Structures are given as structure tokens and as C-alpha cells.
Amino acid sequence: MDKALIYGQALAQLRMRARLSQDKAAEAAGTSQPTWARYESGESRAFLDRLAVRSKVVRALGFTLRDLEAEVELLATDMSYATEDTTGPGLSASAGVDLTAFNRAGLQQVRIDTNELSPYVRAGAFAICDTERPPKPGEGVIVRLRDGRSLPRFYLRQAAELWVERLVAEESAHRWVTETLSMADIAGVYPIVLRSESE
């Protein structure tokens, strides 16, 4: 994997841990959102190649270069996902929407039964997940467990264990909880590529 992309994904990871949007993170670092997005995507090598830029950007998030390097190490040593052959029929266009790109094997429709991804996907909605593409940090995913359960979550990262996030509703507020799931229990982690409104 390209080193600039790994550093960009590590930066995205730190930004999500800081609970900042790209806009707010860019503002804190004294740069623009498009520039920040290029850092995270690895498109701009300035974040990788210039220590002063890297240091300024990471400090703006409240982290150190050591924190960034720890994220880089985790991403660089990501393990392969244990996957099963769960491909099914593709989709056909309906209601005047062109779904040509989604008419292929490897896509699966799942019904979301909880509000753990709300408002990204609400209970009662359907989502299409891609069983052939690995997830990116911050993406909604379906975590398929070997016991047959499916967990809607937000992907954070993977090293020896899988790190995901879920939203917990409490009496007065909502809060994010980071979970660590054992890779021994996971059959696959599939990014959500299309989602519907709840019924």
C-alpha cells in the first residue's frame, strides 16, 4: 500500500478520535477542507514528505507525532479479513435510478434492525454492502459474525483485533463507544455502499 495513503488513513483515524469533521480539523490547522481531504486520501504528499506540515496538522488535532506513528503502524500491519463466499445476485435498475455500477456479484442487501448507525442508517432501512472491498476508516460497515449475527457499525481500524464504533442512546444524550471484536469471531467486514430510507 502507498505510504502516503497509509499516513492519510492514520490522519483520518486521529481526526475521528478527536471527533472533528474535516472542516473543523482544517480550520484548527489553518488550512482548507479540500487540502485536508487530500492529506487523508494520500493525494497530497505534503503531509508525508514535510515534517513541519505533519507536525502542525497532528498538533491541531491534539495528538503527537508518536500517536500518528502508532496509527501508521497499526494500519501497516492490518491483517486480512476472514471472509466467506457470500456473493449473491446483483441489483437491477428501478424507479428511474441507474444502478449499473451496483449490478454485480459481491453485493448483498441487508436489513438494519437497530439504530446503532443512526442517522447514517436507521432501523427498518435496507443497506447494500460490498463483500469484495475492504472498508475505509469512518465508513459504515456490516460486521458478520461466525454465529450468524450481523452488526451494523462504523469501521475504525484493524490490527490483531477489529476496532469499530457504535452509537449508544442514553437517557439524556447519545455517546460513541469504541468496541474491540475478536477476529476469531468475525466472518467478514463489509462496507455499506448504498442505503435506503427506513420504511
From TrEMBL:
Domain HTH cro/C1-type per the UniProt entry, residue ranges: 11-68
Q: From which residue to which does the signal peptide run?
A: none
Q: What Pfam families does the entry give? A: HTH_31 (PF13560)
Spell out the protein name for this chain.
Helix-turn-helix transcriptional regulator
Give the species this sequence originates from. Asticcacaulis currens
